Structures are given as structure tokens and as C-alpha cells.
């Protein structure tokens, strides 16, 4: 008999994390633990308000599906029983972990993937004043890849200050839907001037058609506009890349399929995360073999990670230990 345990957890952030939509001081996650025949599988998700998800809603959805889950629900049937994508993610990853324990093989082997390698993750600079972001860039200048949260008045000055204080770091930008079609030409030009390699979600997902006609000197990545394979065709011609996050796809299973479909469509891949612990990063690391950009720095932004967690040496991530996941 399989047993389901659902837990709410809140992990304090080291300071405050701000994007164009607002700020937060804690990462509120939901974990799923499946126990069966003495073996345990775990998964973690982040209910995200941008997608009309809440911790209460995710917990309720998992509780509603308790009977089929404990009766042996498989990864193939999760979407038939659970609506919130975050809830699907936690359950999907817990099932992968449980399958690995049963088989005595790591998830990467079960999924037919190459063995995980050490990765360089981006390190995120939270949205702040141009002066404060310049100071933050100076402190992080030793990191090889910085992700800049922009999307507010003063972004050009922010870029100038960051580049001046981190002259050797590669830069990617995440506007979190904070720009407009009218400001895009100037912002793209500034990004090119300061050596930005990729811009995530410059326009609102509901108003990104302008990307089809505005010339761009750098690659544009869909984040809030990209979820799963069903909507992939709508991104062709607007974006050059997609940010695959397991909380958006509804788990590792769909994320792997989305990565294949994106490659076939000629889109580059970025693997990203919500603000969460190492338990959420471990499955996402398996997408990284297909990714041009890796942004799995969630644990680095927390005051404390769960243990055992992924080992970070600066921005270098070691493959997850089996005791954590997979």
C-alpha cells in the first residue's frame, strides 16, 4: 500500500527577493512524500500566484486526489486527477524518485538521459535601485553568469552600473513582463551595448505579439509565455528560446517531452526554477544536458537549504546525491 504525505514548508530568503511584480521574504513550498514497501520518494513544488496557484489550493488538490494516488496512480495519469501544475510537479517528481528506489537505478538512467554533470548556474540579482544593483554586482563579480531582474524605470542605468561592477561576468536579463512594445527598441539596444546574451519575457504573455515584428540584436526567451508542449507552436516566430520550469510543465515527465519538442522546433533551451530548495533543483538538473543556459540558483538565495542539499562551489553545482532525490 502506498502512503501519501503532504507538507507545507516556508524557507526564509537571505534578505528580500524582488522582481517587477513584487517582493517576497520566504519561499513557500509544498512537498509530497510517497512511501511504499519501505521505500520513499519525494518531490517539491512552488505554488505561484502568477499562475493563480496558492499553497492552500495545491494542498487541497493533492488531498482530493489522495485515493487514486495511494491506490497506485502513475505519472501518465496525473493530469487527469490534478489541475494545478505545481501540484502535478511535486507528485511527478516523487513518483520518479520512488521508481528509482524500486529499480535500484538513478532517475537519469530510467529516463534514458546522460549522467548528470557539474553545472554552472546563473546567479540572480534581485530588482533594486540602479545603485544597489551595482553594489550587488560588485559582490557577485566573481560569478561567471549573472541573471538581472529588470522591468522598471531606470533599467538602462541598472545595466550600466552592473556591467561597470561586473565587467567579466556573462549577463542575462529577466524583465518578468515589465517592458512595453514602445520601450523594447531602446532596451534591446542597451542590452546589446552592455553584452547581455539573453532576455527573458520582455513583454506580458498576453501581449507579446509585437515580438514577431520588432528587430532584436539578442536572443529572446519565453518564460511566462511557455508552459508545456500544447502551447509551444504559439511561440514560434516570437521567441528564440524557452525557459523550462518543472512547476510550469507539471513535472519532470512533461519537461523532458517539452525539451525534445523545443529542440525539434529550433528553439534553444534554458532550464529555470522558482525560488525553492535543492529538492526542487535536483530533478530540474536532468534537463540541463539539453540547456544552453542553466538558472537553478534557488538554494543560493535562501537563508538555509534543506539537508542533504545540492553542493554549490560558488556557482558550480554538483550532481544531486541519491539521499536528496533521484
Shape: globular
Strand order in the largest sheet: 5-6-7-8-9-10-11-12
| Overall number of domains | 2
CATH architecture of the largest domain: Alpha-Beta Barrel
The number of helical elements comes to 11
**Overall pLDDT metric:** 96
| CATH fold topology of the largest domain | TIM Barrel
Explained architecture:
- This protein is of the alpha/beta class.
- It has two domains: 3-104, Enolase-like, N-terminal domain (Enolase-like, domain 1), CATH 3.30.390; 119-317, TIM Barrel.
- It has helices spanning 55-64, 66-70, 78-81, 85-103, 107-110, 130-139, 155-165, 184-193, 246-249, 252-264, 278-284, and strands at residues 3-19, 22-36, 39-45, 119-120, 123-125, 145-149, 170-174, 196-200, 219-222, 241-244, 268-271, 293-294, 312-313, 316-317.
- The chain has an eight-stranded parallel sheet. A three-stranded antiparallel sheet has the order 1-2-3.
- Helix 11 links the parallel strand 11 (268-271) and strand 12.
- Helix 1 (55-64) crosses helix 4 (85-103) and helix 6 runs parallel beside helix 7.
- It is globular, with a radius of gyration of 19 Å.
- The mean pLDDT is 96.
Amino acid at each position: 500500500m502506498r502512503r501519501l504525505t503532504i507538507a507545507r514548508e516556508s524557507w526564509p530568503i537571505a534578505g528580500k527577493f524582488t522582481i517587477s511584480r513584487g517582493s517576497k521574504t520566504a519561499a513557500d513550498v509544498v512537498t509530497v512524500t510517497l512511501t511504499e514497501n519501505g521505500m520513499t520518494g519525494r518531490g517539491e513544488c512552488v505554488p505561484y500566484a502568477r499562475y493563480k496557484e496558492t499553497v492552500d489550493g495545491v494542498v487541497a488538490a493533492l488531498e482530493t486526489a489522495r485515493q487514486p494516488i495511494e491506490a497506485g496512480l502513475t505519472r501518465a495519469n496525473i493530469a487527469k486527477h490534478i489541475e494545478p501544475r505545481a501540484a502535478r510537479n511535486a507528485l511527478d517528481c516523487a513518483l520518479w524518485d520512488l521508481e528509482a528506489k524500486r529499480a535500484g537505478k538513478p532517475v537519469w538512467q530510467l529516463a534514458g538521459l546522460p549522467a548528470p554533470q557539474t553545472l554552472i548556474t546563473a546567479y540572480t540579482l534581485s530588482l533594486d535601485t540602479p545603485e544597489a544593483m551595482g553594489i550587488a554586482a560588485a559582490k557577485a563579480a566573481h560569478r561567471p553568469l549573472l541573471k538581472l531582474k529588470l522591468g522598471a524605470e531606470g533599467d538602462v542605468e541598472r545595466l550600466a552600473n552592473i556591467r561597470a561592477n561586473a565587467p567579466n561576468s556573462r549577463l542575462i536579463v529577466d524583465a518578468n513582463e515589465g517592458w512595453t512594445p514602445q520601450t523594447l527598441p531602446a532596451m534591446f539596444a542597451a542590452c546589446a551595448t552592455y553584452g547581455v546574451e539573453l532576455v527573458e519575457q520582455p513583454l506580458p504573455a498576453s501581449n507579446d505579439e509585437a515580438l514577431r515584428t520588432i528587430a532584436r540584436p539578442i536572443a529572446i526567451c519565453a518564460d511566462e509565455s511557455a508552459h508545456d508542449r500544447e502551447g509551444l507552436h504559439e511561440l514560434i516566430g516570437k521567441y528564440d528560446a524557452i525557459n523550462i520550469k518543472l512547476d510550469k510543465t507539471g513535472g519532470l515527465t512533461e519537461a523532458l517531452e517539452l525539451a525534445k519538442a523545443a529542440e525539434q522546433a529550433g528553439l534553444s533551451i534554458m532550464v529555470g526554477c522558482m525560488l525553492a530548495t535543492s529538492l526542487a533543483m535536483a530533478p530540474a538538473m536532468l534537463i540541463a544536458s539539453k540547456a544552453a543556459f542553466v538558472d537553478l540558483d534557488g538554494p543560493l538565495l535562501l537563508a538555509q537549504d534543506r539537508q542533504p542539499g545540492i553542493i554549490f562551489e560558488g556557482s558550480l553545482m554538483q550532481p544531486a546525491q541519491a539521499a536528496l532525490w533521484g
